[in-house]
Amino acid sequence: MSEPQATRREFIAGAVTLGISLPILNAQVSFPSATPTVKGPITTTLKPDALAADKGDDSHSKDGFILTRVGKDVYAVDTRCTHKGCAVALPRSKSLLICPCHGAHFLLTGAVDPNAEENPARGPLAVYAVSVDATGLLVVDTSKKLKSGDAGTVVKIP
Questions:
Q1: Domain span at residue 146?
Q2: What are the tens digits of pLDDT across the range 29-42?
Q3: Is the N end or the C end of the chain the one with fewer CB atoms within 10 Å?
């Protein structure tokens, strides 16, 4: 016995329903954006020694960066994942950066995590120029996207 075939009317009604549903579904599962809200220097509310060692602070993720501290080095790591551009997140452990879209893992320096079993990241996260102002607060310049290790990417805590 053969399967019943849809009538032309049923087929068109299904296609219209699908055409209406897909944009709505896409809006429901859209991935977080990683676009900085400001281009240029941003004075944070943090002093370098306020960051816990080997942890991160995502209070400026809306500005397109996460402040991290590795030992005595402070970084401002770009939140745009190198895989598909989604915003990376700082989980509760605050010791690793993870992209919620496809599972890319990054170290707090922005480097790709070499210990991740599957890592779709195409390269390290960029870092921004970071400095300390006259009042001792960290300043991140989101107009200066650099590579980890470049001059101006790290503030040393004495």
A1: 41-156
A2: 444 445 555 677 88
A3: N
